[in-house]
Design brief:
Radius of gyration: 21 Å
Shape: globular
Largest sheet: 6 strands, parallel
Number of strands: 13
Number of helices: 16
Strand order of the largest sheet: 10-9-8-11-12-13
Structural class: alpha/beta
CATH topology of the largest domain: Rossmann fold
CATH architecture of the largest domain: 3-Layer(aba) Sandwich
Strand content: 5-15%
Low-confidence stretches: none
């Protein structure tokens, strides 16, 4: 039996189906959520429970010893539960999501942000916290010991590191980023790669005619500051855009930031700016992306990987800063990317040959069969270690 602990109902949806395909009838899901929101209506294996009732429900519904407990996302509650499971003798496999990478990769909380966005983030902090962040920034993180005086942040990181040193393996979809985390924190655990999803087959129905589109430029995938929208806006001069529109997907994220970026986009690009603010069916989203000729993913850490994969599978040009470990990861697979740090980066559509090559790489490495096989292999290693 493989048990999954998920932080809230937003993490489920179709999520359980990905693992149930790899391990049919062998999964039990616990959603740590106090809300009454529906969870995964098509799965009878999900238990929606309050965080303080976890152990009662865990023992009630688990009739036999779990072979493996996968803890998805190491927020405060899930990290605590994972440590308790380790102390109880369970074999725990933590899944790192994008939120964990900031603290585990750098002592500097401003690390994910490019200069213009960094200024926005600092402006949103209290005076004391803004001053503290600035000190960390200019010292390159060497003042990290001061962080111990900030109650919650340091405590959670220490708990995450304790967990990662007490388990044999942890999961990430990006090998290069996991290796940095292991090296930087001298972890004793090893990395296992599990893709959080496979490509939706529908995405291949909306492949663009490579080289034929001079369409929109998509910036970012959500309304979180890690997308570094402001810095990208500065790079998109009228000459570079060549009358093409800028589209930002702002259906979710920080409410204040969502409104701010929409205002900035409209002020900067006027009628050549479009904000997608509503969730739409996946097929409708893919259809809308057919008009995109280039996608700028300006995040510096693993974040929004699913959208990057989809745009590559559709034959679009992807532009990304080279310091993002996803950049070297995708390059190692043979994907053709443009470097945001290169002043002459292109926004032109890929040639037909390059687009087809990228699409073939995407279909192989992120296709359903490959992802299921990789999940099975990685879980087997975790179970038998």
């Amino acid at each position: 039996m493989i048990v999954h602990v998920v932080p809230n109902h937003r993490f489920v949806g179709s999520f359980p189906g990905r693992f149930e395909a790899a391990f049919p009838n062998d999964n039990l899901w616990f959603v740590i959520d106090n809300s009454d929101a529906p969870v995964c209506a098509d799965s009878k294996l999900v238990r929606n429970i309050a965080k303080d009732a976890f152990w009662t429900q865990f023992r009630k519904h688990l009739s036999s010893q779990a072979d493996l407990v996968c803890v998805h996302c190491l927020d405060g509650d899930n990290t605590r539960i994972a440590l308790e499971l380790v102390d109880e003798g369970y074999k725990v496999l933590p899944f790192l999501w994008a939120g964990e990478y900031t603290s585990l990769l750098s002592e500097n909380p401003l690390q994910p942000y490019l200069p213009r966005t960094k200024g926005y983030v600092l402006g949103r902090q209290t005076i004391a916290k803004s001053l503290y962040y600035r000190l960390l920034d200019v010292s390159g993180g060497r003042l990290a010991w001061v962080k111990a005086s900030l109650s919650g942040e340091n405590k959670l990181k220490l708990q995450q590191l304790r967990l990662l040193n007490e388990v044999s393996h942890f999961v990430s979809p990006v090998k290069e980023e996991a290796e940095i985390i292991i090296r930087k924190n001298s972890l004793s655990s090893q990395f296992l790669r599990v893709q959080y999803s496979w490509l939706d087959e529908e995405v291949f129905d909306f492949r663009s005619a490579a080289g034929a589109s001079q369409g929109e430029i998509q910036v970012g995938h959500s309304g979180w500051a890690m997308n570094n929208h402001l810095d990208v806006f500065d790079l998109l001069s009228r000459e570079r855009l060549k009358s093409r529109s800028v589209v930002c997907t702002l259906a979710y994220g920080d409410p204040h930031y969502l409104k701010f970026i929409e205002r900035e986009g409209r002020a900067r690009f006027t009628n050549e700016f479009r904000a997608v603010k509503d969730f739409v069916p996946r097929s409708e989203y893919f259809k809308g992306m057919q008009d995109v000729s280039a996608y700028i993913a300006a995040q510096r850490n693993q974040f929004g990987l699913g959208n990057v994969k989809n745009l590559i599978a559709m034959g679009k040009r992807v532009v990304m800063p080279r310091e993002n470990p996803m950049f070297s990861n995708l390059k190692s697979l043979g994907v053709e990317l443009s470097d945001l740090r290169d002043d002459s980066f292109s926004l032109e559509p890929l040639s037909a040959t390059v687009a087809q090559s990228n699409q073939e790489i995407a279909a192989h490495h992120w296709g359903r069969d490959y992802v299921i096989r990789e999940s099975q292999d990685s879980f087997q290693v975790a179970i038998t270690s």
